[in-house]
Amino acid sequence: MIFYQTVDSDKQEKELLISPEQLLDSVARATKNGFVAFDLENKITLFSPKMTEVTGWHEAEILGKDLKELYASKEANFPKNPEDVISQPVVLFTRDGKQINLETRLTSIINKGVTAGYLVFFVIEDYNKDLDRAQSEFISTVSHELRTPITSIKGFASTLLQQSQTIAEEKRNKYINIIKNQAERLSRLVEDLLAVSRLESKKLQLTIHPVKLKPIIERVTIIVESKHKNSHQFDISCSDTLPDIWVDADRLEQILTNLIDNAVKYSPGQETVEIKVRVCQHDGKEMLRVNIIDYGIGIEEGNIRKIFTKFSRLDSPLTRSTEGTGLGLYISYSLTKLLGGDLTVTSEDGKTTFCLYLPLESHEGGAVWWD
Ligand code: ADP
C-alpha cells in the first residue's frame, strides 16, 4: 500500500500522502460492515459508525469500556499466528440490553512485530433481515397488548347494553369499574408507546437546566404514595446542601416515578422503600447517585439485562397480578443515558437497589440530542 510519496530522493525524504486515520475513515464509510478494535486488556479502542447503527452504542460511550460490555458471548477464539484470521459467530449486547447474533472475522493488530490488540469485522449485511423480523415481532406484541384491554372493554360494554334492565347494581358497578381500569391500562400503554417512539425516532427535545433533586424526589414520593394508598413509607436521605444536577427536570421526574413506583409495586407487604442520595465517582466523573432500595421479590442475576428491554416483564405471580407494560425501565434507561447519566441495578439477599447516576455539569448544554 502506498501511504508516502518521495519528495527528495537525494535525502530519501518522504511525505505522508494519507494518514492511517483517514484511510480507516474512508473504509468505515465505504463498507457495509462494521468493525471494532480492542487492546490486550480487552479495552475497546475503535468503534466504527456502522456498529453504532446496529448496536445503538455511541463511540463516545463505548470507547475504553471492557469488551464484556459489548460481548454477550463468553468466549472468543484468538489466532495462533498473528496473520491468521478467525471466523466465528458472536452475540453482542445492544445498548438497550437486547442480544444480537453476528458473524465476525477476527485478526491481530501487529505493532513493531508484536500483537498489540485485535480487530474484529462484523458482517452486518444479513443483520437487516433480522431487524425486519424484530420489527414484525414488535408490531405483533403491541397488537396483542392492545387487543387484550380492547376485548375486555368491548365485552363488558356489550353485556351492560344487552342486559341493562336485568343486571344487578353491584354487578353493573363491577363491570363499569373493569371498563374504567382497562381504559386506563390502554391509555398507559399508548403513552409508553409514544415515549418509545419519540425516543427511537430521536424527536425528543430535552431542556437541560441546573436542578435541585430533593424537591423532585419529595414530589414523586407523594404521587407514588397516594397511588398505592400509603402502603409503603419512604426513608429519604438527601442532604439540602447537595449540588444541583444538570438535567431535564420533567424527564428526571418520569425516570424517578418509574423506579420508585416499581420499588413499591414489587415489594408488597414490605413497609419501607429507601432513597439515598450521595455524590460519588462514576465512570471517572463526579456524579450524584440516587439509590432506590426495596426489600421485595428481587431480580435474578440472569434477568438483570433483560428487564431493560422493551415489553420484558419477569414471570412471577406478583408481576402477573401487577399492572405494567414492561416499557418503563426501557424508557427510564434510555432517558437516563440521554441526560448523560447511567442506570444500574443489583439484587441480592432480598435487597434490590437501582442506582441512578446524574451529571453535576452540563454535558452538552441547552436543549440537546445525542447526535
Ligand atoms: P412494568 O411496567 O412491568 O413494571 P418495567 O419496565 O418498569 O415494567 O419493569 C420491567 C420488569 O422488571 C417488571 O415487570 C418486573 O418484572 C421487573 N422489575 C422492575 N423493577 C423491579 C423491582 N424493584 N424488583 C423486582 N423486579 C422488578
Question: How would the blueprint of this fold be written?
Answer:
Blueprint: E1 4-8, E2 13-16, H1 20-30, E3 34-39, E4 44-47, H2 49-55, H3 59-62, E5 85-93, E6 99-111, E7 114-123, H4 127-162, H5 169-200, E8 206-211, H6 213-227, E9 233-237, E10 245-247, H7 249-265, E11 272-282, E12 285-294, H8 317-321, H9 328-338, E13 342-348, E14 351-359, E15 366-368
Parallel strand pairs: 9-11
Antiparallel strand pairs: 1-2, 3-4, 3-7, 5-6, 6-7, 8-10, 8-15, 11-12, 12-14, 13-14
Helix pairs in contact: 4-5, 5-9, 6-7, 7-9
Task: Write up what this structure looks like.
By secondary structure, this protein is α+β, with helices and mostly antiparallel strands. The chain contains nine helices and 15 strands. It has a five-stranded antiparallel sheet with strand order 4-3-7-6-5. The chain has a five-stranded mixed sheet with strand order 9-11-12-14-13. Helix 4 packs antiparallel against helix 5 and helix 6 packs across helix 7. The longest helix has 36 residues. The C terminus is likely disordered. Bound molecules: adenosine-5'-diphosphate.
Task: Give the tags.
37% helix; 5-stranded mixed sheet; binds adenosine-5'-diphosphate; 371 residues; alpha+beta; elongated; 5-stranded antiparallel sheet; 15 strands; 9 helices; disordered C terminus
Topology as a string of helices (H) and strands (E): EEHEEHHEEEHHEHEEHEEHHEEE
Radius of gyration, taken over Cα atoms and rounded to an integer in Å: 26 Å
How far from one another are the termini?
Answer: 34 Å
Q: Name the ligand types.
A: adenosine-5'-diphosphate
Query: How many distinct beta strands?
Result: 15
Beta-strand portion reads: 25-35%
Low-pLDDT residue spans:
365-371
Could you estimate the helical fraction of the residues in percent? 25-40%
Shape: elongated
Structural class: alpha+beta
Number of helices: 9
Mean pLDDT: 87
For the largest beta-sheet, the strand count, sense and barrel status come to: 5 strands, antiparallel
- Placed side by side, the strands forming the largest sheet appear as 4-3-7-6-5
